[in-house]
Amino acid sequence: SAETKTVSGTIRIDPALADHIPEGASLFLIARSERAQRGMPLAVKKLEEIKFPYSFTLGQVDVMLPGAVFDGPVTIFARLDKDGDAAPASGDIDGSVFTNAGDQQVEIILNRLIGP
Which of the residues 6, 59, 87, 93 could staple to 80 if both were Cys, CB 3.0 to 4.6 A apart? Predict the structure, then answer.
């Protein structure tokens, strides 16, 4: 069997947005394969009660599609979400990083406040 790869690292919030963290926010981590920028994400994780900086791991256990393998180049999107819904909404804060399955010490900065 293929070696299971994970991506791990740290999620930080831009100090300029630290006052905008929604009360009781969830953190969504969404990985998209380089080959599939549309449709179902490769992997998704929803985390509650996050404190920053937050140490994250994303990997095969978070894969959505049966038979999909967490491997290759991926973009990981992180989003602080105030309503617990996977769709972006006004007041959410997000950031992303382009990386490879197996990378460690990846840093994602939440630096974009989603407007109305």
Answer: 93
pLDDT of residue 37: 61
Strand spans (E) along the chain: 6-13, 26-33, 43-48, 54-59, 73-81, 93-100, 106-110, 112-113
The verdict on whether omega for the bond into residue 41 sits within 30 degrees of 0, i.e. cis, is no
Cα separation values, 101 from 27, 69, 107, Å: 20, 10, 14
The answer to whether 20 and 115 have CB atoms below 8 angstroms apart is no
| Rounded distance between C-alpha atoms, residue 9 and residue 109, angstroms | 11
With CA atoms as reference, report the closest residue to 62 among 50, 76, 51. 76
